[in-house]
Amino acid sequence: MAGSTAETINPPQMQDHQPGRETEMHPKPEYMPKFPGNGRLKDKVAIITGGDSGIGRACAVLFAREGAEVALVYLEETEDATITAEAVKAEGKEALLLRGDVGKKAFCETVVRQVVETFGKLDVLVNNAAEQHMETALEEISEEQMRRTFETNFFGYMFMAQAALPHLKEGSAIVNTTSITAYRGSPSLMDYASTKGAIVAFTRSLSGSLAKKGIRVNAVAPGPIWTPLIPASFPADKVARFGANQPLGRPGQPNEVATSHLFLASDESSYMTGQVLHPNGGEIIGG
Fold first, then answer.
1. What's the CA gap between 60 and 168, in Å, rounded?
2. DSSP string, 118-165
3. What is the mean pLDDT of the chain?
4. What does the alpha-carbon distance between residue 41 and residue 154 come to, in Å, rounded to a whole number?
5. Where is the signal peptide (predicted)?
6. Relative to the CA of 110, which of 8, 121, 239, 275 has its CA 20 to 30 Å away?
7. Total number of domains constituting the chain
8. Burial class of residue 83 in the structure, from the number of CB atoms within 10 Å of its CB (0-12 exposed, 13-18 middle, 19+ buried)
């Protein structure tokens, strides 16, 4: 029943490492596109950070189905990244795997350079990499954790955008993944929610800066989505009930979010910039 805090949605499970591994999840997240491609990203080149699993994997496969070559940026989850690359290739497109830490400016510059050297251009940047750590009290959040969360979730977005901008042109798009927590907060994810709020402000600010150049900047704010970040962040009992309180009564799947990224990356959203889409299972945000 929707809204029940006692309902078990998925089997209880935990992972003792971040980033999480999609290969260890049960059931597996749904990432394959639901519909045939229609050339929405034909001849485009896209970078997707956090592209190995979760929402990033779903975006990668969907973008490939719609005609894009994709570069998958990931921290260390090589098995997940390889599975994603094979799924991209099954759609008839190339997948460039780039392993490293987006929290480091030099690595972000290397990513863009290698993408341009490989594919000859860059059209779309999807900033999606993230980490989160559950802490119920502010005083329990260490300086190290706070810095790490901001480096991955926010500095990485800015570093990637800085590196990408010299190669983007009129018609290009940047899509940032923020979160429902940017709008309603999260008592157990204070540093994470703060980074997601910063991403909203960054999206709106950068969109205004780039509007005259014809480069659009938008964001997607998912609600509870079944990705490796969930069992890697929360205790098993909370994972089992994850998403049950949303109006639709369940967590979303990555392939239910990637369509928002596709819309914002493609010319179908040509009159949108500085905006945020909310695939969150029916929770009213900012209304």
1. 19
2. HHS---EEEE--------SSGGGS-HHHHHHHHIIIIIHHHHHHHHHG
3. 95
4. 26
5. none
6. 275
7. 1
8. middle
Active site residues: 192
Helix (H, G, I), strand (E, B) or coil at 117: helix
Task: Give the span between the Cα atoms of 231 and 21, in whole angstroms.
Answer: 9
* Tally of CB atoms within 10 A around 133: 18
Which residue range forms the structural domain that includes residue 209? 40-277
Helix (H) or strand (E) holding 262: helix 258-265
**Half-sphere exposure of residue 97, counting CA atoms within 13 Å on the CB side?**
19
In a domain, 29, yes or no: no
Q: Is residue 212 part of a domain?
A: yes
Tell me the residue type at 126: V
pLDDT digits (tens, 9 = 90+) for 90-145: 999 989 999 999 999 999 999 999 999 999 999 999 999 999 999 989 999 999 99
> What is d(CA 23, CA 19) in angstroms, rounded to the nearest whole number?
12
* Peptide bond before residue 27 is cis, with ω within 30 degrees of 0: yes
Are the C-beta atoms of 61 and 84 separated by less than 8 Å? yes
Radius of gyration of the chain (CA): 18
Is 7 inside any structural domain?
no
**Quick one: which H or E segment has residue 218?**
strand 216-220
Which H or E run includes 261? helix 258-265
AA identity, residue 69? E
Tokens of 170: 């009129």
Residue keyed to tokens 């959040």? 141
In one-letter notation, the amino acid at residue 31 is: Y
Amino acid at the residue 123: D
Please report, for residues 8, 9, 239, 271, 283, the alpha-carbon distance to residue 245 in angstroms, rounded to integers and kept in the order given: 11, 11, 12, 34, 10
Residue with tokens 């997240």: 29
What is the reported pLDDT for 287?
60
Its pTM stands at 0.94
The CATH code of the domain that includes 188 is 3.40.50.720
Report yes or no on 94 lying in a domain: yes
